[in-house]
Design a protein that fits this description.
Helices cover 21% and strands 26% of the residues. By secondary structure, it is of the alpha+beta class. Helix 3 crosses helix 4 and helix 3 packs parallel to helix 5.
Amino acid sequence: MTRIRLVVAYDGGGFCGWQLQPEDRTVQGELEEALARMVGEPVRLHASGRTDSGVHATAQVVHFDVPDARADLPWTRALNSLTADDVAVLRHDMVSADFHARFGAISKTYEYILWHERRFLLPQRRRFVWDCGPLDFNALGMAAEVLQGRHDFSAFQNVGTPVKDTVRTLEPLEMLPGITPHETVLRFTADGFLKQMVRNLVGCLVEAGRGKLSPQNVRSVLYEGDRKTAPATAPAQGLSLVRVLYPGFDSGEAAGVGNDHHMGPGEAHRSGPVRH
């Protein structure tokens, strides 16, 4: 058997998440159906992580195994011809049998886009932003400093996916300009994320930007570790998985991430598996 790695982008608005579901359209289901047509038998995909309904990706990483006789198929071109327009395979390559899209990852990066213009929301951006209104980004940034580092993020985990522990290391938040003057991008990088952790972090930080939470309040939520004390989860449509980093491989490169979208100093030299 030969192991193939794909870097995949998708608009999550038309999917009920990544994970295969019998009655619903999912990204995994869409790709596995196309792969089965190519290979002539069922093929199981393994992703770097599950994205929820409505969440997007520009650099999701997946792997699958196929018989050696099928290894040289033009995977990128063929899959793009067999899938709908809201999924795109950006790249494929052959990897060693010990590569694993989930367990081999060093870190992940998500971006969340906030729309802070009160007067209007561009219809073209509605599927990709949270129309949260004006924010004090200095206050938001001060609250974010409380969250960076290695902590137990129990208060920012929604129920649904069992994990061995809830301790994660969160890099300093990056705040970047969006593609319009009315947007700000919050970029989160960590050695792993809990279920809906980024959306819960965003919900908390937006409340800080609205003046409803102080850094001390955020610290209390973090240390108490009780999801019930944390603000509501941010909407799904503002969130995208934009990078998964492995030893010697960066999915963000396949997605066209340039110098303005970079890891912090020394990021590529961290070791240890990403945790989910």
